[in-house]
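Hey,

The postdoc asked me to send both predictions to you directly instead of through the lab channel. I've kept everything plain text so nothing gets mangled by the mail client. Protein one:
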Amino acid sequence: MKELESEIMETTRTLKIYIPDSYERDSIKNYPLAIVLDEEFMFDTYVGNSILFAKKDKAPKQIVVGISMEETRAKDVGFDLNSGALINSSKNFYDFLRDEVLFYMESNYRTSPFVSFVGQGYSANLITHFLQENTAFINSFVCINPSFSDFIGSELQSYNLNKFTNEDNTFYLYINNSDAFSASKKTKISQIQTALSTLEIKNFNIINDNIITDSAVSAISEAIPRAMTKIFEVYSAISKEEYEEKIKELSPIDAIAYLEDKYLEIEFLFGSSLGIREKDIYAIENIIIEKENGDRLFDFGKMILKRFPSSPLGEYYIGRYYETGKNFKKALKYYKIGYGKMDPADPNADNYYENILRLGGQ
């Protein structure tokens, strides 16, 4: 727990901070930051999901800060019913989050450029106001079970969401509807989701969700992992859906560029230098081998060596390129270099060595 003195609100606010267990062991790695409102019942659920997703390699480990609001919620997220504008105390809370909480976390912890704001109910309504900022410093706006003002539609229109196209970054807006809500709330959210679904804004991803449940509490627990799945999709290994929608029809050179760009974006956004997962290499292997007579195998191998130098796969594909061209001497050279990187106990070592034996090497 951290008691943070706020000059803006002229009081002290309580922050609850979660730091991943690897933070102290790795003094170089940076971590995405999630600022979670309504800490009293949102923080533990978000942290639990962040740990699970990281362990399953579906998201990077995150630093999470929860903002306690149990006694101040009405002042923190209140708005004028006649205009939708934040009341003065809520404006101060907004500035506190932007200028003091974010500044404190980025000054005292190794955070990556990827920042998420997470809220529910009226806190989710407050989060949408951050879309008006001219400088885009929030990557994901997670609005769970949102209680929007009646003016949310005109507010969103006034925020000029097209400005995100000018940013060299990736942004997400998650909004869920649910059977658990009143008819009027469901209608309002549905109207906003319908309007947002018509937008096609580069770099700005709209995630409209509908959770089938009779419990608003259950909807919260379901919405957090559903939002994480989409927000951290680029971090995850290539899924069948990603392959079918974005990769399958690419040329070999474009498939190679897609894979390289994916891992450059992971490193930039999340502070995670992963090399390249072998499963992602295999995901595009058929494209490289079967299209253009395998002429891009050399480029494929070079890209792997650059991004994943410890892997023997770079040498394997370069060796295969030379073997296809009947330059057996060079092929044998690269196969031997690749095999030299392998642990003899690796179950794939014998299969890799078959390449050397096939070309008459020892």
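Protein two:
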Amino acid sequence: MKDEESGNRLGSYLRARRELVTPAQAGLPPGGNRRVPGLRREEVALLAGISPDYYLRLERGRDRNPSPQVLESLARVLQLDDIERTYLLGLAAARPRAPRRKRPEHVPARVHELLAHLQIPAFVEGRAFDVLASNSMAVALSRRLRPGQNRLRSLLLDPEEQAFHQDWAKATADFVAALRTSIGDDIDNPRFVELVGELALSSQRFRTLWARQDVRSLDGGRTTVHHPVVGELRLHRDKLPVDDVILVVYYPDKDSDSDEKLRLLAALSHTESAGTAPGSPAGDPPPETP
């Protein structure tokens, strides 16, 4: 995260986004001998109604106080959606700040109780997609949903998790973009620095997606996964904020084929765990920290 997250995040974002817009998408003739994958700087400036010199200063970090009107014009030219536009405006508004003391992410005791009572896959994740707590159905759905796992690391590096997702390419793109959104201006957070650094070294897919600087909200929706025992499951996903963490639940349409398969998975999980001694990592809350 050392380039865009250091001194010139605005310029780095503008550069990454203009490289993703083709001349045809912007209504320009393609021309010949183009040495850039997307729009040239002068083309962005022309379409946004600003001078090429001023746009160059923005990209190179020489001017860090563009007006909202300029940013709105650039968002239009770069074809940003509402989330990306908000992110762009936030980059321009960001100011140097004193380092904040980081509080450890904490799962309230009542959420551990809720997890134990839910009969559908449910778990708690932190801002960096760390699994902080989960119930037995979540672990039955995927062993990568045990506490201590990181969902993005598993998705990028674990072959079983890659096979688990029907559309792995879309899942990775969504997760990486959601991570950048989650980071926001909290760029000195040690957990984010550690995770991004690890994945940048170990995953070409992550490096490619991170360079795009996509931002996205990964909230509710539908997903299709391939479970190694019960087969294809089509599930809804909801994310519910609880204090500083997120409760994630997966559930099928009632009386659907996936509903039957999930009930079968629950029965198999109950049978397998019937002789397990108390204290499994999925079911019991961790000791309270003084």
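Summary for protein two, as requested: The chain is about 45% helix and 10% strand.

Thanks,
C.
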